[in-house]
């Protein structure tokens, strides 16, 4: 085989490896047909219901339609199946949009990726999943992006704190897992976190451990400062912390038989100096901080395939919400980060500005309406006050007339 043939073969193989694949995409553009693709779990009988809507404000009434949680204080469990695949040797990209238009106070906005063996009608919170990814909010203390991987049967949370968006607008969330065990998290097509899977999760035991045989020598002095042995406490140092108030006088009406012996109240002693401690000097025997020697951890074994899942076949919304109203849309699972970015710009990117404009317009209309209502209420209150004033004046005039009539009648009688 010639060198040219080998080169062409290598280029062909590379093109196969980098070929874009879309494993799942859902934009809810065919009305209620989504109900035939998504399966509601029957594990519980009181799961909350999803409805298809673009919400109260949007950039495009049709393109922005997604699945919205519709009932408060409910668990939700819905999933969709796609052709099973594995991500060996290629990137895994998970992307979707989340819109908390209800000003969420506590609830999930994440998705779960399951192996294809999942029984969708029995999906619940303890169902084994591969990856959990997306925003989670609960009060002011929890506003994070979850990135949880299942590795050898155990769920591992990321060791970093990735803050999610907590406003009412639609936001695009993207997770990229690469075959070199690196990852990247993007929000609105901008990188917010990245790194190495082994470094940012506790998948593997540490490479190094403290040498169990090593011990700090008994004569090792790690005190940087020591009390000055030549420093002595002054003779006049010890003074009481509180003393009787020298300006206090026994009240004139104090009765010792009734009140007991009078004692002046206590006040802080201005001469009190606190507990005496000798000054410190540099320790001449100081050897520095003792560092425990480390050795290779015999339990550590490198794994170049932490990123890999043998079976990926179901995407699910398995979450709890106190206040409903979150809209999920624009789901995408692919092996091409560039494609995901393009899709994000073509969906979320094209409607986000119009969505914001519509919401701001609604808020302005509401503000004007409130001002009109406040003005109308003030006018009505002023009218009521004027009417009350007129009625009161009429009553006073009637009383005056009655008084005049009584006086006149009395005079006539006299």
Describe the structure.
Helix content is 24%, strand content 30%. The protein is an alpha+beta fold and 414 residues long. It has a domain at 22-203 and 305-356: Jelly Rolls. The longest helix is centred in the C-terminal third of the chain and has 66 residues, at 348-413. The chain starts with a helix and ends with a helix. 24% of the residues are buried.
How is the topology of this model organized?
Elements: H1 3-17, E1 22-26, E2 38-40, E3 50-53, E4 66-69, E5 74-85, E6 92-100, E7 106-108, E8 111-114, E9 131-138, E10 142-151, E11 154-157, E12 170-177, E13 182-187, E14 190-196, H2 197-200, E15 208-210, E16 225-227, E17 242-244, H3 256-259, E18 266-268, E19 280-282, E20 294-296, E21 312-321, E22 326-334, H4 337-346, H5 348-413
Antiparallel strand pairs: 1-22, 2-5, 3-4, 4-22, 5-21, 6-12, 6-22, 7-9, 8-9, 8-21, 9-10, 10-11, 12-13, 13-14, 15-20, 16-19, 17-18
Biased composition (Acidic residues): 253-262, 380-405
Subcellular location: Cell surface; Cytoplasm, Cytosol; Cytoplasmic vesicle, Secretory vesicle, Cortical granule; Endoplasmic reticulum lumen
Signal peptide: 1-18
Quickly describe the structure.
This protein is 24% helix and 30% strand. With 414 residues, the protein is α+β, with helices and mostly antiparallel strands. Strands 1, 3, 4, 6, 12, 13, 14 and 22 form an eight-stranded antiparallel beta sheet that branches. Strands 2, 5, 7, 8, 9, 10, 11 and 21 form an eight-stranded antiparallel beta sheet that branches. It has a two-stranded antiparallel sheet with strand order 15-20.
């Amino acid at each position: 085989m010639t060198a040219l043939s080998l080169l062409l073969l290598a280029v062909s193989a590379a093109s196969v490896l980098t070929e874009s694949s879309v494993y799942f995409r859902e934009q809810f553009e065919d009305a209620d047909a989504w109900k035939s693709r998504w399966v509601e779990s029957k594990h519980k009988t009181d799961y909350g219901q999803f409805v298809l809507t673009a919400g109260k404000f949007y950039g495009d009434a049709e393109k922005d339609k997604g699945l919205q949680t519709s009932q408060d204080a409910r668990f939700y469990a819905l999933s969709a199946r796609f052709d099973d695949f594995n991500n060996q040797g290629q990137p895994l990209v998970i992307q979707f949009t989340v819109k908390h238009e209800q000003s969420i106070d506590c609830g999930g906005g994440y998705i779960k990726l399951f192996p294809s063996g999942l029984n969708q009608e029995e999906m619940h919170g303890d169902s084994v999943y591969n990856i959990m990814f997306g925003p989670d909010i609960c009060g002011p203390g929890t506003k994070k992006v979850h990135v949880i991987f299942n590795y050898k049967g155990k769920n591992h949370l990321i060791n970093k704190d990735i803050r999610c968006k907590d406003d009412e607008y639609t936001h695009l969330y993207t997770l990229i897992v690469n075959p070199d065990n690196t990852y990247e998290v993007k929000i609105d097509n901008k990188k917010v976190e990245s790194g190495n899977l082994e470094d940012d999760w506790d998948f593997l035991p540490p490479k190094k451990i403290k040498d169990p045989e090593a011990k700090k020598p008994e004569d090792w002095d790690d005190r940087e400062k020591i009390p000055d042995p030549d420093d002595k406490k002054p003779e006049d140092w010890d003074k009481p912390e509180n003393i009787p108030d020298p300006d206090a006088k026994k009240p004139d009406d104090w009765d010792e038989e009734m009140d007991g012996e009078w004692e002046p109240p206590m006040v802080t002693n201005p001469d009190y100096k606190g507990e005496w401690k000798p000054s410190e000097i540099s320790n001449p025997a100081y050897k520095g901080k003792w560092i425990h020697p480390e050795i290779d951890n015999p339990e550590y074994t490198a794994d170049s395939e932490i990123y890999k899942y043998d079976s990926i076949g179901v995407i699910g919304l398995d979450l709890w919400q106190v206040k409903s109203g979150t809209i999920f849309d624009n789901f995408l699972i692919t092996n091409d980060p560039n494609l995901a970015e393009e899709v994000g710009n073509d969906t979320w990117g094209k409607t986000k500005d119009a969505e914001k404009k519509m919401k701001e317009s609604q808020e302005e209309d509401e503000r004007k309406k409130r001002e009109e209502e406040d003005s109308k209420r003030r006018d009505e209150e002023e009218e009521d006050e004027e009417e009350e004033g007129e009625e009161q004046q009429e009553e006073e005039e009637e009383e005056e007339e009655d008084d005049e009539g009584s006086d006149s009648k009395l005079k006539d009688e006299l």
